[in-house]
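Follow-up to my post from last week.
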Amino acid sequence: MVHWTDKERSTVRAVWEKLDIDQIGPEALARVLIVYPWTERYFGGFGDMFTATAVLNNSKVAAQGKVVLKALDRAVKNMDNIKGTYAALSRMHYEKLNVDPDNFRLLADCITITVACKLKGDLSPQTQATWQKFLSVVVEAMGSQYS
Amino acid sequence: MSLSGRDKTIVKSFWDKIGSRSADIGAEALGRMLRVFPQTKTYFAHWSDLGPDSPQVRKHGSVIMAAVGEAIGKIDDLTGALSSLSELHAFKLRVDPANFRILAHNLIVVIASYFPADFTPEAHVSFDKFLMRLAFALSERYR
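User reply:
Got it. Predicted complex:
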């Protein structure tokens, strides 16, 4: 079980409260698709993603980005059982969506970079360390049901 | 994943934008790497101070960025440009090349936080590709 100090809990909550899911979600997912274009394999029905502009203007990408960040909210609200919270989602990504779990790490990195653009200096090294710990737990939970 | 002409143009112009802030960016990225990914501290056990204001961290951060700047100047031959640094990292420092990716991530986080409006997804992909090529060139002499 992951141990969180009170400071770490409040840091994660504080970062989360500063984020607009409807803005951060679409941007983070767009960055994943643009920076790591092989990830497009998982979004076959999304239409035109051939250029960065197309990805950024793609309404299905934006909608999916919001879905992903809304799911991250569940981890923020259940920090003591992130693995349990994501068990079913992990299984779905493995068995139904066939997603290589390395992609969860890529998405986590792009979320952090999007957050850095938004928070700038407010993402202090201390805050980044706690945020990274949180996302690492999320990434591990999302890969936990792969067998 | 070779660098297109467009990637090189984007990286060079971003570097010009970074200008004199490169030393600060390097120092901050190195400090963040040591703080956020503590396994990287194992390579710097000989430093007395690994905190963000450590003069050793600041100095080394600017050394790293000077090398990045030099590499950008020789972007058409990164392998050649980094040959002796690659030998240093391979045979003397023996740094696991997986860590180059970790430093690259922190460089990107710092650059994004300093230039949020300019670090668009298009700039992000070109910079990420460049740093991966840099890491590859740095690991060229390993085996």
